[in-house]
């Protein structure tokens, strides 16, 4: 499912016009993105949690040339699945 599919699904389930469903989906994603950028953790019970993990810099190697390169510190979004979602996914066969 991509974002467009999600918008159509929300519109259908909530009996909303597509444009209104698109606004809602965009608002949710924008709000979640802003929270992560601000360093907040997002927890959705039964679904999972989103957080930002920080990784320290290191010296790596270019696989093509073998040349050493310096990789700087970075922050990446991380999703941890909730117990209920894990069980739902695992029980569908």
Question: Per CATH, what is the topology of the largest domain?
Answer: HU Protein, Chain A
Number of strands: 5
What is the arithmetic mean of pLDDT? 95
Within the largest sheet, what's the order of strands?
Answer: 1-2-5
What is the domain tally?
Answer: 2
Query: Which H/E pattern describes the elements?
Result: HHEEEEEH
Superfamily at the CATH H level of the largest domain? IHF-like DNA-binding proteins
Write the layout of secondary structure elements.
Elements (H helix, E strand, L loop, with lengths): L2 H12 L3 H20 L4 E3 L3 E8 L2 E4 L6 E4 L2 E8 L1 H9 L2
Antiparallel strand pairs: 1-2, 2-5, 3-4
Explain this structure.
The protein is of the alpha+beta class. The protein has 2 domains: 1-40; 41-93, IHF-like DNA-binding proteins (HU Protein, Chain A), CATH 4.10.520. It contains 3 helices and 5 strands, in the order H-H-E-E-E-E-E-H. It has helices spanning 3-14, 18-37, 83-91, and strands at 42-44, 48-55, 58-61, 68-71, 74-81. The strands form 2 sheets. The chain has a 3-stranded antiparallel β-sheet with strand order 1-2-5. A two-stranded antiparallel sheet has the order 3-4. A hairpin with a 3-residue loop joins strand 1 (42-44) and strand 2 (48-55). Helix 1 (3-14) packs across helix 2 (18-37). The mean pLDDT is 95.
Structure summarized in a few sentences:
With 93 residues, this protein is α+β, with helices and mostly antiparallel strands.
């Amino acid at each position: 499912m991509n974002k467009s599919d999600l918008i159509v699904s929300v519109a259908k389930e909530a009996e909303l016009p597509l444009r209104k469903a698109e606004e809602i989906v965009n608002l949710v994603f924008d709000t979640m993105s802003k929270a992560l950028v601000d360093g907040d953790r997002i927890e959705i019970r039964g679904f999972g949690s989103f957080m930002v993990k920080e990784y320290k810099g290191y010296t790596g190697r270019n696989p093509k040339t073998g040349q050493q390169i310096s990789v700087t510190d970075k922050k990446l979004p991380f999703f941890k699945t909730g117990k209920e979602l894990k069980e739902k996914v695992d029980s569908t066969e």
